[in-house]
User: Fold PMF1 factor from Steatornis caripensis.
Amino acid sequence: SYQRFASCYRCFYRLQPDVTRSIYEQFISQLQAAIKEEIQEVKDEGNLEALFNSLDKIVEEAKNKEEPAWRPSGIPEEDVRSAMVPYLLKHRSYLRKVLKEKEEENRKVAESMLAGRDKIAELQQLIQARKHAWQ
Assistant:
């Protein structure tokens, strides 16, 4: 405040109060300009404007949600469990689905292989029969 500034420079204030007021106003305006410049540099360096815009979007999206946001309980084991269990259950169901697909694929390949073996056995018998007939 101007009163604090004047009390710091009491002798100068008593001699020339108008000049003290002018110095105070110049000091305040330069200080405000320097602070604004520093803030702008920080915003530019950290890309804060884009981050704040994305944060605003997240806040707007969260307003439409009815369920409460997740908050940590303070017990790390429970927090990790509550976050990981749904993911792991989803992953387990995916792995089970993939396993069923692979088992079905293996069953088809096994049937195909058995059919091939039967065909080979038939061909061997045919070869043997023709060999005996030829001899």
